[in-house]
Amino acid sequence: MSIRIWHQSFTVLSDLGVYDEALRAHFRKVARPDTEIHMHGMQPGTYRSNYPGDDIKHSALQYLHGLQFMAAGLNAEAQGFDAYAISTLPEPGLRDIRSLLDIPVVGYGESAMLTACMLGRRFGVLVFIDELAELVHDNAARHGLAERLAGVRHVGFRFADVLAAFADPAALIERFRTAARALIADGAEVIIPGEAPLNVLLATHGISEVDGVPVLDSLGAWIKQAEALVDLRRANGTRSCDRGYFSARPDGARVREIFAFYGLDRFLQQGEAA
């Protein structure tokens, strides 16, 4: 039986043709043949340019943009998807979205960290948005994995450099290896390439280790965890917690009423996915 996953990016995918194409190719490679990954990005016009980092490096702006992730999760469940994937390192609204949905919800950073814990004692994260380092530390603590985090470092290049490297990756990959070695010196036994564009670039070119230390495919980690959660649910009914302040699901009709009150109902859809 096939699995349908709603992938939600923090980018406007239509603004990033080369990244969009690389994602599609990587998903075809990693996902099971019967898994369908339906790609979704932010609404056109969300950002001033094709670069979301100027906004998402600020906590308040990231929170506001994260409301699109919440609406997308509701749309995914309404349209019959089997799982919802927050496919971005910051994982906006991950805990809150889990409390709204009955389908499995996976986060890019959380999936990467949990998988890394099975590959080495401590993991490190390389980011190209320097300001996200604080958030990664905070998220690791929220996931109960602060003691397993060796450190978060800036990788030494930016978003635009990653996009350009899809055409000529050799020099940037060497710069990545240099940054990874510094993180290994800090005690990292697994390297997580932070933001998804860097992840897919490295995975596309077969970069899976540096000096014997695994370089994790974070995108692959959430794909496999989403598939496993759907399998568990189908096999024995396993679901996420539905009690307590952080996990109890509110009434769905009331959720939509509140979206409408704040003028956010334009982000909500109905019916089956195309």
From TrEMBL:
Residues passing through the membrane, by range: none
Any Pfam family matching the protein: Asp_Glu_race
Record-linked InterPro entries: Asp/Glu/hydantoin_racemase, Hydantoin_racemase-like, Iso_Racemase_Enz_sf
Family: Belongs to the HyuE racemase family.
Stated name of the protein: Racemase
Organism classification: Bacteria, Pseudomonadati, Pseudomonadota, Gammaproteobacteria, Pseudomonadales
